[in-house]
Amino acid sequence: MPHHKSTMKRLRQSEVRRQRNVHFRSRMRTAIKKVREALEKDDVEAAKTALADATKIIDSTRSRGVIHAKTASRTISRLTRAVNAKNA
Q: What single string gives the DSSP state of each residue in 13-25?
């Protein structure tokens, strides 16, 4: 355990931030999973709506600094290509 007042505060802050990051990362992964499940079921319309939701969630997760910007772009790109491939 920390002995200094400032390190105790840092410990509290980092735990709050960790919990918040876990929440946003979990939310993002669930959205990605919904897109992939819709693609597995060959439901293109559901995949398109899930992709729109996932894109919004991934972008908000990126803007909060939970994931890197290029990771977000790569994920969105791969999901979009997968949906477009099923659509064609």
A: HHHHHHHHHHHHH
Produce one character per residue of 55-77: b if its CB has 16 or more CB atoms within 10 Å, e if not.
Answer: bebbeebbeeebbeeeebeebbe
pLDDT at 32 exceeding the cut of 90: yes
Question: Does residue 88 register a pLDDT over 80?
Answer: no
Domain 5-87 has CATH 1.20.58.110: yes
Q: Where are the domains of the chain?
A: 5-87
pLDDT, averaged across the chain: 96
| Mean pLDDT (whole number) for 14-43 | 97
pTM attached to this predicted model: 0.89
Contact 32, 2 (CB under 8 A): no
For residues 27 and 34, give the distance between their C-alpha atoms in angstroms, rounded to a whole number: 11
Q: What token pair was written down for 24?
A: 């946003």
